[in-house]
Amino acid sequence: MNLKRKMTLALASAALLSSHLAMAQTTLLNASYDVAREFYKDYNAAFVANYKRTTGKDVKIDQAHGGSSAQARAVNDGLDADVVTMNTTTDIEFLAGTGVVTKDWAKRFPGNASPTTSTMLFLTREGNPKHIKDWDDLVKPGIQVIVVNPKTGGNGRMAYLAAWGYVRKKGGTDAQAAEFVGKLFKNVPVLAKGGRDATTIFLQRNIGDVLVTFESEVVSVDREFGAGKVDAVHPSVSIIAENPVAVVERTVAKKGTTELAKAYLDYLYSDEAQEIAAKHALRPRSAVILKKYASTFKPIQLFAVSEYFGSLAEAQKVHFNDGGQFDKLYTVK
What we know:
Layout: H1 3-26, E1 27-33, H2 37-55, E2 60-66, H3 68-76, E3 83-85, H4 89-97, H5 110-113, E4 116-118, E5 120-125, E6 145-148, H6 154-169, H7 174-186, E7 191-192, H8 195-203, E8 210-214, H9 217-225, E9 230-233, E10 237-239, E11 241-243, E12 245-247, H10 249-255, H11 258-266, H12 271-279, E13 283-284, H13 287-292, E14 301-303, H14 305-309, H15 312-320, H16 325-329
Parallel strand pairs: 1-2, 1-3, 6-7, 6-8, 10-14
Antiparallel strand pairs: 3-12, 4-11, 4-13, 5-8, 5-9
């Protein structure tokens, strides 16, 4: 092979390597929880447009969705997500504990690194035929409740903790709360893997009288199945669910996407992103935008996890780890 041909091949190889590196630097993977897929579809389009406008660079965002805990395990086991956007802090704490995410992740972005919050509502069938109004109705004989498995999704953990906190908020003891939650889960015919799986069980498989899920799922159901298929019921008491985000240090160090990943999460706090969140029934951190959408976010007596459980990490140990409170009160059907 002559020298000229060798040089041509070398240049071609260098160009190919350069293009692969460029692609790696301009493609970002967000590993997220089930019921956030529609929000991130709209948010990603807004971010891509803004990034192009402000930097002149093109960027591609890929999404991976599933039960939040299952997603965290997938990232821990090697899924090369640049960022994680979850619905409970325990899933990111898990990744911080294994060194995949920095230990001080919650201080890297405002609002405990949670650009939005949510809470748990009930979705009933059109017209609310079983007249479900509050948590007490979920433990009545003959009521079938669809809920996510607390071991595989933050959606399920928040539903469980919301029910427990409801009893405590009314002045009940932990023993009374345990009895109440036990009765509720006896009314669960099948545990869903994640929030979207729960919606599928409820609406496509037509199982259950009520679905306990995030407030944001109301908008998704209306869009996917048509308005009027479900009634949203706001219980008297529910829980504040933070939606935390973090950069996956292991991945961005390898791919060279640190700045892009940070920009992606930073933009979640912008007015544009907060507006998109509100339209998807995710409660924005911006007080101004939250007030603007007051008709969407009806007043509920909300309590923080810390009020009854110390922290989500403590709740995880007591309630959801193997052999914990959930295992004691729920028998797999």
